[in-house]
Amino acid sequence: MKILISGATGFIGRNLLAHMQSDEYEIYALVREHSTLLDKRIIQLDITSLSELNVELDVFINLAGENIASKPWSKKRKQVLYESRVSLTDQIREALKVAPKKVISMSAIGFYGLTKEGEFDEQTPSTRGFCFQLCHNWEKAAERFKDNQTNVVIFRLGVVLGDGGALQKMRLPFLMGLGGQIAEGDQWFSWIHIEDVIRAILDSIKTDSLTGTYNLVAPQYITQKDFATTYAKVLGRPAALKTPRFLLKLLFGEMAQLLTEGPKVSSKKLEGAGFDFTFTTLESALIDIEKSA
After folding, report:
1. 133-156 exposure pattern, b = at least 16 Cβ within 10 A, e = fewer
2. Rounded to an integer, what distance in angstroms lies between the CA atom of residue 30 and that of residue 38?
3. Residue 191: which of 158, 164, 165 has the closest Cα?
4. What is the pTM of this model?
5. For the segment 32-63, what is each residue's pLDDT rounded down to a tens digit?
6. DSSP states of the chain as a string?
7. Is the pLDDT confidence value at 240 over 90?
8. Residue 185 pLDDT > 80
9. Is the per-residue pLDDT at 293 higher than 80?
10. Which of 25, 151, 179, 216 could be disulfide-bonded to 155 (CB atoms 3.0-4.6 Å)?
11. Which pLDDT belongs to residue 20?
């Protein structure tokens, strides 16, 4: 099975490749420059050499995208975020001589906007804003593969928890007893264990039972305060420190909304399609992750 992956050296990409070691897969990785992080069996391509690739891909897995929370959202930063998602997806589609049979593309629950009000499934109208526009355009770029009769699966990700990624940045403050509630703490915290992300992608590779757009979040609804309390409990630390809203706004500007707001997102469509989550409670997920940290 011939598979092209963008974002192969990122958090999800590295974990996915660790589960794709068998000879069943012939893997091509789209990279900006040659990476020593990738196994020697993986064929590394840049966007120029991709246009010279003359094979029929079974699957293109679209994981690329600059970290949305790593820097404040200046006009320049917003453009970088857009280009690393929307523009790159279009460039890949235009570069490929032969359309892939299937595209599995990431999006995010930022599609629903930054809000605490309401409950969102895949059909619920979004609130507007930068996150919505970014995710909306990213999904549209992936859906343009349908013009060539390609089957497209889109996953709207919540906060991906694992040994690395977002949790890696939170772990040290919590270990030092400095973790806790952000603003009022009543914003929703839609999360997913990295292993369930990988299982969903692998299921999509191997079968056609998943098609269209799905929220890839755990079925348990929790608030940010619930997360802080549970993570502190798992680490055996207090969660007494509260970070005020005004300070986050002062530090991060518009991007502070990622921390102070959060939609309540449903996973019922994915469950209805037959996907069984391995980790359905935050505590079980965090205990599992800490075992390997």
Report:
1. bbbbbbbebbbbbeeeebbbbbbb
2. 11
3. 158
4. 0.95
5. 889 998 998 999 999 999 988 988 999 999 99
6. -EEEEESTTSHHHHHHHHT--STT-EEEEE-SS--TTS-TTSEEE-HHHHTT--S--SEEEE-----TTSS---HHHHHHHHIIIIIHHHHHHHH-SS--SEEEEEEEGGGG-S-SSSEE-TTSPPPPSHHHHHHHHHHHHHHGGGGGT-EEEEEEE-EEEESEHHHHHHHHHHHTT----BTTS-SB--EEEHHHHHHHHHHHHH-SS--EEEEE--S---BHHHHHHHHHHHHT------B-HHHHHHHHGGGGHHHH---EE--HHHHHTT---S--SHHHHHHHHHHH-
7. no
8. yes
9. no
10. 216
11. 93
| pLDDT(252) > 90 | no
- Residue 259, domain CATH: 3.40.50.720
Handedness of CA 196, 198, 202, 207 (dihedral sign): positive
The pLDDT tens digits for 102-159 are 999 999 999 999 888 889 999 998 888 999 999 999 999 999 999 888 999 999 999 9
Q: Which domain holds residue 160?
A: 2-292
How many domains, the chain?
1
- The type of residue at 107 is S
Question: Contact at 8 Å (CB) between 157 and 281?
Answer: no
Q: Which residues, 6 or more positions from 254, have their beta carbon under 8 angstroms from its beta carbon?
A: 72, 73, 130
Nearest to 102, CA basis, from 43, 156, 143: 143
Structure tokens at 213: 């757009």
